[in-house]
Design brief:
CATH architecture of the largest domain in chain B: 3-Layer(aba) Sandwich
Strand content of chain C: 5-15%
Strand order of the largest sheet of chain B: 1-7-6-5-4-2-3
CATH topology of the largest domain in chain B: Aspartate Aminotransferase, domain 2
Chains: A alpha+beta (125), B alpha/beta (478), C alpha/beta (439)
Largest interface: B-C, 198 and 199 residues
Distance between the termini of chain C: 55 Å
Helix content of chain C: 25-40%
Number of helices of chain C: 13
CATH class of the largest domain in chain B: Alpha Beta
Distance between the termini of chain B: 22 Å
Oligomer: heterotrimer
Number of helices of chain B: 15
Radius of gyration of chain B: 25 Å
CATH superfamily of the largest domain in chain B: Type I PLP-dependent aspartate aminotransferase-like (Major domain)
Shape of chain B: globular
Structural class of chain C: alpha/beta
CATH topology of the largest domain in chain C: Aspartate Aminotransferase, domain 2
Number of domains of chain B: 3
Strand order of the largest sheet of chain C: 2-8-7-6-5-3-4
Structural class of chain B: alpha/beta
Largest sheet of chain B: 7 strands, mixed
Amino acid sequence: MANVPEGLKYTKSHEWISEQGGTYTVGLTDFAQDALGDLVFINLPQEGDCVTAGETLCDVESVKAVSDVFSPVTGTISEVNEALADSPEMINETPYGAWIARVEGVSDIEELLDAAAYVAFCGKE
Amino acid sequence: MRLLFERSVPGRRAALVPELDVPAVRFDESLMRTRVPRLPELSEVDLSRHYTELAKQTHGVNDGFYPLGSCTMKYNPHVNEEIAALAGFTDIHPLQPVETAQGCLAVMWETQRDLQEILGMDAMTLQPAAGAHGEYTGLLLVRRYLQEREETDRTKIIVPDTAHGTNPASAVMAGFTVVSVPSNAQGGVDLDALRAAVGPDTAGLMLTNPNTLGLFDPDIVEICRIVHEAGGLCYYDGANLNAIMGQARPGDMGFDCTHVNLHKTFSTPHGGGGPGSGPVGCKDFLAKYLPGPIVVRRGDAYAFSQPEASMGRVRGFYGNFLVVVRALAYLKTLGARGVSEASVNAVLNARYVLKRLENSYSIPFGDSCMHEFVIDVGPLKDETGVSAMDVAKRLLDFGIHPPTMYFPLIVHEALMVEPTETEDKTTLDEFVTAMLQILDEAHEDGEKLHGAPFDCAIGRPDEVEAARHPKLRYEFSD
Amino acid sequence: MGSYVPNTEEQREEMVATCGLSSTDDLFAVIPPEARVAHLDLPAGLSEMEVRAQMQAVADENVRFPSVFRGAGAYRHYIPAIVTSVTSKEEFVTAYTPYQAEISQGVLQSIFEYQTQICELTGMDSSNASVYDGTTAAAEAVLMCKGRTRTGVVLSGTTNPQVTAVVKTYCESRGVHVIVVPPAADLSTDVDALAAETGDDVAAVYVQSPNYYGVIEDVEAIVAVAHDHGAKVVMGFNPIALGMLRTPGEMGVDIAVGEGQPLGLPLSFGGPYLGIMCARHELMRKLPGRMVGETTDARGNRCYVLTLQAREQHIRREKASSNICSNEALCAMTASVYLAAMGPSGIRQVAESSAAHAHYLAERLAGVPGFSLRSSRPFFHEFLTECPTRADELVSALAGRGILAGLPVDDGILWCCTEMNTRSQIDALVAAVREVSAR
């Protein structure tokens, strides 16, 4: 049973998102890291990149696959978790601590699920 | 096994070239390298034994059955190796005056002529060094054609979801974007989805037929017609030509351009991953865009000619010439009847193995097949935990190279089996026996199979560590 | 008709019966009649003896020159016997790509050795397992540097024209614009002109050294210019030259590419050749194509495996930065065996011998009226001279004496020497040139 913390919001593409003072932080859920398997590399986006809700934020690699991480919001990337460049396994170990990017100047947000709705959604996958 | 660097002993050297017979040249220090390369120093006997040891840990198609779907691992004839080693081929400089290289141009011209006949194409280039390179070249033909007609809105290449990964990658390299169309329940292209996908932005379609499920799409003529009617061109990925050569021609199905893989269909060896050769053929109307120079015949002599609206070059010189030599020798050996015989036996062998396994393994599109078919290990995995990977690794213990794993993507635990025509019934029966034994083992003790292979030089390598912290070279201790 | 089909008629009949068919014709029933071909217009198949005779006859129509003084991208060097014999081993020749590591440690280890040798030769940090040839390596390398705001490439006009042509083809379809800077009068790169073209939108600057004319470039000056503008430097090298000349690594180059044919591959009318690609550590994950990495198995044994595959087309598909699938594995092994056979002293010896013979020829040709050197810059083993007569006639006349003369280029002749051009061959060439040009 995957871990799904209460205080966060979730997308159907298995990202989590939190907000503080206009800055949105995005990462991958426990369900996602388990499905992807051991991550070997993350192609981090760059600060200053523009992202669009529902479109690719970046991608992550496991040994045999590449998967997109989608941005739940439209805005500009203000910060990127550079530690992931050398240690992508942090996403496997602590998916909710290993945030990927922070976005500011957000103009549009996808429809998000709360924890209960996300658990229900995963149950059906 | 020790690495060359670990066998190295400082001071060992061979006398391979003579001492200087002219004055030495001194360059200014600023032009010279300051660090001596740490290349291994070995005697010839060490070198010889090193590679003998490596060869014992290598498994080629001439060593055993290699049913790799989509790769057509057919026997590599010995005589072709000898012919390709003839000094009259190996010692010819690519920039020799054309009159002194007529034999080379003859090889290229005859190979083109034979391949054009097999494919139903009018013109050809031998430049591409591999299938993917050929795909890129073929798509550039489409690009140039559309550019000349100023149809720059046509930016999309349609690719079925069963396509090999090189197809979408090549399309993007050629400046297009990719539209994927789903397969129908029979494994062919969903015609309604195709009709919905074509439009004024369609540049073309990339397709292999039989597809990567080993199925010949009976709607192929209609598929090409739909794309042509929408104003696009049709590109045939020739990777699966072995199923139909001498039986059907892509040019007659409606395709405008195509590549072939000499290292698949035409028996040239894989060399551990290359060199291959991916010649591209096209219909007359695209010939002017071909990469140049191409070989032409003028009376009794051969010459090079530059196509009038050539896309330029896709590589240096003319192509992987010695690979072409092998393919020509193969074509001369087979002749028209041999070409047909190859596809008949390739398809029969695959169909036979399918029939013998269909009641034991799940074969989703298994009513029939052409030269290859796909086993879905999914149901077995659900039942016993044994995956396609486990089955594949266990086959290694039987001395059999596993089928292609995890491809095509629409079958999740796929094993794609392509026997080719150069195997006989006895070998096929041995393969079936091995597969049935593995099935029994899966039911008896599935957990154990996760540790396969058991009898190979090494167990399963840690690929996660290799990808996370890549060590791509030997590190010296100094 | 020759055949490699082992099934007998009897075996086929059994199999047809197992498949529930009436004959093998049923196998192709699914093909629509309009696509069916009845008969291929190909010559009849032949016995092995006839095929061999025919192909030998075709090979005999080619002229093998005892003396070769032509380079321009393909070089005649001595190939040690061990190189040919090792790379003819059937296991290496007929093996597939080493996706199944457990039975492919031989191939995988040899690629790992090759990658290491290339890094040592070039001074770079990481090498891939090879690409098709030097020209496509150059194209893939400049495209590696492409960024969102950097979509231009500047090429020095002293580059081999085939490299320039391939770079242009590859860049055009990726929307990357290419600027070629004309050479300086002394056949080196015009660094000031290069600097002028290198704006903030330039992703990469490409320079070949020794260049097409044999001249050794001031690569460090070009690196300074490029890096000042935030562009990367891709250098095209000659692997033999690195036996003695300064390496791309020492000169601050970002990506080094080269044609590996001189490392034990015969001239073979242009292919198969070998594309070498290596880069600084930071660019390792951007290198296209296959790479072999070291790891351990479950029992703790050191072993080798294809790694970083998630960059490749079979996984990334349309997001792959390159579509490359095959490499030139056997050619890379050939280079590795050659480098191992030669050793560091051998490769230095080949480089010195090539340079020495070229300089000896240049000096002696300078004594023949009208064959002066066009450039006074230092050169490695190729050089351009003037030609007082019609170059094609000179080449023809020399061909009649078993000599493949230099290549007519830019109203001059581009000569090349390697360790295989003996002093007496060179003297004979000079005498012949003197005689023919005096007419």
